[in-house]
Specification:
The protein has 281 residues and is an alpha+beta fold. It has one domain: Hotdog Thioesterase (Thiol Ester Dehydrase, Chain A, Roll), CATH 3.10.129. It is 22% helix and 32% strand. The protein contains nine helices and ten strands. Strand 4 and strand 5 form a beta hairpin. The chain is globular, with a radius of gyration of 18 Å. The mean pLDDT is 96.
Length: 281
């Protein structure tokens, strides 16, 4: 019988170069401060990825091939934040509540994880377009009024090479867990979760975005050496507190056409300026 509460600590790091010349410059000090934040925001999937070892302690490696997760970001995480990662077994359930906490009581991430098929997994909308296309030299912006909910986006193919994995696990999601770094290793779950923002930028010119919420259904492991194809289907766009949000589903398949994961992703694709936010208050 596993412990009903598992707790680990972590010191946050940025996971990318602190430069405005990155794909999502909200993760740089200069741009984050221009939006009113005190420091660079650590990327959402990087923060969630720090919970991986705690989740594996609770559920075992089976979670990576047939588990699920849902989580939302409540407060920003900044480099050097001291975090508590706490997993608590829910009463009369096989699900675990997962929280990432800083400053003793500030909940930054609120999530749940479990094994098997999530209750919401049948709600995913499958894209009908999984034919990879190269990235356009000039991509359109994503505009609230012209976003076309119900549209499938262009698919993308990425080879999970040893070189990509080494770079990812030594800079983006630093880990020494042999599950993710050995030659016979598999994709880290934060690499899988990161596909949503990658597909967003494959299709649109997005100056900065903020990941706010996710649902992830793992369907099988993704071994190193796999060519992964991802496609997306836009569900809705909306405005809240002057921010522009997009909600879309992602399907990931291996090079044999097998489903490996499905994601539902919420993101702010246009962050409101300080002035725009002030007008809402």
């Amino acid at each position: 019988m596993p412990n009903s509460i598992i707790e680990n600590t972590y010191v946050a790091y940025l996971g990318n170069e602190d430069s405005t010349d990155i794909s999502n410059p909200i993760h740089s000090t200069e741009v984050a401060k221009s939006y009113g934040f005190p420091d660079a925001l650590v990327g959402g999937v990087t923060v969630w990825g720090w919970a991986t070892d705690t989740i594996l302690e609770a559920l075992g490696a089976e979670w990576l091939s047939e588990g699920w997760a849902e989580y939302s970001f409540r407060q920003p995480v900044y480099p050097e934040d001291h975090l508590i990662i706490r997993a608590s077994l829910e009463e009369n359930s096989n699900s675990w509540d997962v929280k990432i906490i800083k400053d003793s009581d500030t909940i930054c991430v609120n999530g749940r994880v479990g094994i098997g098929k999530a209750l919401w997994s049948d709600e995913f909308i499958r894209t009908s377009d999984m034919e990879p296309r190269g990235e356009e030299s000039e991509k359109p912006p994503l505009v609230l009024e012209d976003a076309e909910p119900g549209r499938d986006w262009s698919a993308l193919s990425v080879d999970l090479t040893n070189e990509l994995v080494e770079e990812f696990t030594t800079s983006k999601q630093i880990t020494d867990n042999p599950l993710f770094i050995d030659n016979n290793g598999i994709a880290h779950p934060s690499w899988t979760a990161g596909w949503a923002e990658q597909l967003l930028r494959h299709n649109f010119d997005i100056p900065s975005s903020m990941h706010t919420r996710s649902r992830v259904q793992h369907l099988q492991n993704i071994p190193i050496g796999t060519s992964v194809v991802g496609g997306a289907h836009l569900l809705e766009v909306y405005e809240r507190k002057a921010h522009h949000f997009a909600n879309f589903d992602v399907l990931l398949q291996d090079d044999h056409g097998n489903d490996v994961a499905q994601l539902r992703h919420w993101t702010i694709f246009r962050i409101a300026t300080l002035e725009e936010r002030a007008q809402q208050s």
